Amino acid sequence: xxxxxxxxxxxxxxxxxxxxxxxxxxxxxxxxxxxxxxxxxxxxxxxxxxxxxxxxxxxxxxxxxxxxxxxxxxxxxxxxxxxxxxxxxxxxxxxxxxxxxxxxx
Length: 105
What we know:
Helix content: 40-55%
Largest sheet: 3 strands, parallel
Order of helices and strands: EHEHHEH
CATH superfamily: HUPs
CATH class: Alpha Beta
Number of strands: 3
């Protein structure tokens, strides 16, 4: 029997430049996890619009955070890296999961 595939899915909001807390709290681990897991990393720009964002500024910071992901060492050959708003199915699945009844069992 094959071992299960270990998978990681995580992301950060593009609400400003990445800072030391982002780097030490997440990025260092994300880079390490690429060695042992199938990784999917997202710039969660839809999450960022829970508060007002200037559209041009959000576009700019989304690009900058994506560039920072790559500069820090996330490898697009070993990990999937994407912007949340560019994958409509991401929001669609969230809608389905939020509407699904919760079992009391």
